[in-house]
Amino acid sequence: MNIQGEQIDNDIMRHRYATISELCEALNRDTDHVSILEATLGMIFFQCSVGRFDDSLPDIPWHQHFQAAISLVQKLELPRLVTESHDLMPFNMTLTAWIDILGSTVQGRAPSFAHTYREKHLSQTNSSLGLRELMGCEDRVLYLISEIACLEALKNDGMDDIQLCQHVHALGDQIGLTEIGETGPRVPFNAHGILSPKQLSKNMTAAFRLAARIYLCSLVPGFSPSQDSCVGLVNKLTQVLEYIPAGPGGYDRSLVWVYLIGGSVSTTHSPFRHHFADRLAALGDLANQGSFGRVSTLLKEVWSHVDGRYSPGGGQAHYVSWREVMQMKGWDFLLI
To answer: Are the CB atoms for 299 and 312 separated by under 8 Å?
Structure first.
């Protein structure tokens, strides 16, 4: 490594150490919880925005930062506030929910505030947490992803197959309810080339909805990516993703979780892989950075197993889940 590179690494570590030290001191003082929460969430999202998958500089895993964030959220009573309030949602709780819901799926556990999301989902008058405005997907679809994560946790704890399949069916019906009145994805630009945020959100919600269905199907005993139902869902997802603007000014980097779930079960000749390759090319160097760069690297590893490059023969018999690959590689990414 050249001197300049070493200096940059040293600067990164110095700033990282100073930031974490200050956060620890602030936590010990047990005051100004809002500012500490903002800084802690910022540390988590910083990892998602920059750096490469092979960054070897020591750092604190995102979920350890998030444990501190959970404690602060509870001290601030944000779950109670967002359940009772009809006013604008605290932005820190919106960020927390985004990390909590999708982060739980990465770890295979139930979200820490699953009960809050369940209450919001059931509310007729106070259902929004501001997630759609933050990251594009309708809140109720993310609440259902939270429920699927809870179901996976129950499966891991030994839920019997009959009960599991009943819950899968029920959640599938719930996902279907979010489709009522939807007309399908459309080009999110008007005749003058101006982006319609409303249509973009509809398209992104459709992508998350299909990814949620794939995630749900993967919980069924005997699941295989080569099943017609899964192949069909991945093909539909690929079609929807065509309606999301690409490139550095596009929104692919907001769909990391969608690409993770859909890509991890895409078969060798799936059109999804061609779509993903095109999107990588359109992003240029940004395709290698942050969470998008990490999910790209992870998918290539998964496909190497599925296609037989790492497992002779490949195919259905050699299906390896993306979580297994992360464990094999020692990766601990927050893929959102």
So the answer is: no
Three-state DSSP state, 23: helix
Give CA torsion, residues 309, 227, 276, 132, to 10 deg.
-140
Confidence class for position 10, pLDDT limits 50, 70, 90: low
For the entire predicted model, the pTM comes to 0.91
Hunting for tokens 């509809």 — which residue is that? 202
Could you give the maximum distance between any two Cα atoms of the chain, in Å? 61
Q: How far apart are CA 147 and CA 153, in angstroms?
A: 10
List CB contacts of 316: < 8 A, sequence separation 6 or more: 224, 225, 226
Confidence class for position 58, pLDDT limits 50, 70, 90: low
Q: Which two structure tokens, joined as six digits, stand for 270?
A: 């799936």
Residue type, 313: G
Contacts of 288 (CB under 8 A, 6+ apart): 52, 296
Q: How many Å apart are CA 204 and CA 241, to the nearest integer?
A: 8
292: exposed, middle or buried (Cβ count in 10 Å: 0-12, 13-18, 19+):
buried
Share in percent of the chain as helix, strand, coil (round to 5): 65, 0, 35
Cα(313)–Cα(318) distance, integer angstroms: 8
Q: Which residues contact 215 (CB under 8 A, 6 or more apart)?
A: 105, 145, 148, 261
What are 183's two structure tokens? 């007309």
Radius of gyration of the chain (CA): 20
Burial group, residue 111, by CB count within 10 angstroms (0-12, 13-18, 19+): buried
Q: What is the pLDDT of residues 129-150, one digit of tens each?
A: 999 999 999 999 999 999 999 9
